[in-house]
Amino acid sequence: MDSEISADAELDCIGLYCPMPISMTKEEIEKIKPGQVLKVEADDPAAEEDILRWAKRSGHEILKFENNDGILTFFIRRNK
């Protein structure tokens, strides 16, 4: 079932550190339409808390979050 999540846009933040992953995620989510999904990959441990907290505060939905050996993957649906 997880493989059914498809992204309308992708953002690669591998190798970038705070605050770049969250800043870039905020910018990129504005480029897609409500209902579309943004896939974000990051390897900065701070990105997990930053992006999860930001999504909750801003009203966007985390469809899926994975941490695979330090590679953080988020699927975020833009809700507004």
Can you give a write-up of this model?
With 80 residues, the chain is α+β, with helices and mostly antiparallel strands. It has helices spanning 20-29, 46-58; strands spanning 9-13, 37-42, 61-68, 71-77. It has one domain (2-77): Translation Initiation Factor IF3. The chain is built from 2 helices and 4 strands. It is globular, with a radius of gyration of 11 Å. The model has no long low-confidence stretch (mean pLDDT 95).
What is the number of domains? 1
End-to-end CA span: 25 Å
* CATH fold-level assignment: Translation Initiation Factor IF3
The helix fraction, in percent, is: 25-40%
Global Rg = 11 Å
Total E-strand runs: 4
Main-sheet strand order equals 1-2-4-3
- Oligomeric state, counting identical vs distinct chains: single chain
Name the poorly predicted regions. Answer: none
Mean pLDDT: 95
CATH superfamily: TusA-like domain
Order of helices and strands: EHEHEE
Number of helices: 2
Broad shape: globular
> What top-tier CATH class fits best?
Alpha Beta
CATH architecture: 2-Layer Sandwich
Main beta-sheet strand count, sense and barrel state: 4 strands, mixed
Helix and strand content put the structural class at alpha+beta
Strand content: 25-35%
Family: Belongs to the sulfur carrier protein TusA family.
Pfam family, one: TusA
Protein name: Sulfurtransferase TusA family protein
InterPro entries: TusA-like, TusA-like_sf
